[in-house]
Amino acid sequence: MTVRIAFDIGGVLSKYPAILRELAHALITGGAEVFVITDMRDHAGTLALLEANGFGFIPADRVRCAEYGRHGEGCKAELLRELGIQIMLDDFIGYVAEPGCPIRCLVMPDASRPYYDDSWITTGGEPEFGRRTYRKVTP
User: Fold this and answer.
1) Which of 8, 16, 25, 108 sees the fewest Cβ atoms within 10 Å?
2) Residue 127: inside a domain, yes or no?
3) pTM for this model (two decimals)
4) Which CATH number covers residue 93?
5) 3-state class of 90 per DSSP?
6) Rg of the chain's alpha carbons, rounded to an integer?
7) Are 9 and 76 in contact (CB under 8 A)?
8) Is residue 26 domain-resident?
9) How many domains in the chain?
10) What pLDDT digit, counting tens, does each position of 64-123 carry?
11) Which are the contacts of 55, defined by CB distance < 8 A and separation ≥ 6?
């Protein structure tokens, strides 16, 4: 069986990019299918953001933008079921509360770390989130 695992961007990949980049590489090398499921609204902008931050190795067809406006907090659960994801890592409890896959991991906020790691690249032109928009801009 091939394991399918998905990562959120904001507060997950953006908060722990070095650790999760290594994890994603190791998972892919080991045969897992790695996905990114975000509530950002623009797929092309999301791909550019991932590329700028060293996650461009995740295939574009495995990067999905959940439709918050249509499904609310169940938006990611819809995609998890559709894609057959088995493990999801997200920092927003609303997205992991509804069953969409067997293992839903809440990345607990670490108050000593910023939402965006100092190495995380943003330009202010990133796609909007379904629940909010980016605030930090990297000069």
Assistant:
1) 108
2) no
3) 0.87
4) 3.40.50.1000
5) strand
6) 14
7) no
8) yes
9) 1
10) 999 888 888 888 998 999 999 999 999 998 888 888 889 999 998 788 888 888 898 886
11) 13, 17, 21, 24, 36
